[in-house]
Design brief:
mainly alpha; about 150 residues; single chain
Length: about 150
């Protein structure tokens, strides 16, 4: 055998191997019979386990009662939490209403103070004009009062 030389320009001769496979096919139902019997045994075992349990132990009743008690306690705790949230929301609404009333009162007070300051700051206006005094007309008899419609 010769050694491989990477600098040799001649390629090495390829090596071929020939393989022959022989496949023998046999027709047999043995595998299916084994699988069927095994499946039947498993099915019988499962049914045996399910129906051979007998009566439920007394601890199951106590467990169910404890679960009912726990669910009741959880429902009461949830109800208390909801009531607390409702009370908190109502308190927030009450605080908002109080703030609104205080703001309205402050606005009314500020308006009154502004009007008072304006009245103090304004210089009085004096209008002088001559007044002509006339004598009342002489009456010839009793005064006559007649109803009139309102003048709006």
């Amino acid at each position: 055998m010769t050694q491989y030389d990477p600098n040799d320009p001649r390629p090495a001769a390829p090596v071929y191997t020939e393989t022959t496979e022989t496949v023998v096919v046999r027709e047999s139902n043995t595998g299916w019979w084994i699988a069927g019997i095994l499946g039947g045994v498993v099915l019988i075992a499962v049914l045996w386990i399910l129906f051979a349990r007998g009566q439920a132990p007394a601890s199951d009743a106590a467990l169910l009662e404890a679960q009912v008690d726990a669910a009741t306690a959880q429902a009461q705790a949830d109800q208390a939490a909801v009531q607390g949230q409702v009370a908190s929301a109502q308190a927030g609404v009450d605080i908002g209403r109080a703030d609104l009333a205080r703001s309205q009162a402050e606005a009314v007070r500020a308006d009154a103070e502004a009007r008072a300051a304006e009245a103090r700051a304004a210089t009085p206006v004096v209008v002088e004009r001559p007044v002509v005094v006339t004598a009342p007309a002489p009456s010839t008899g009793p005064a006559v009062v007649t109803p009139t419609s309102p003048q709006n």
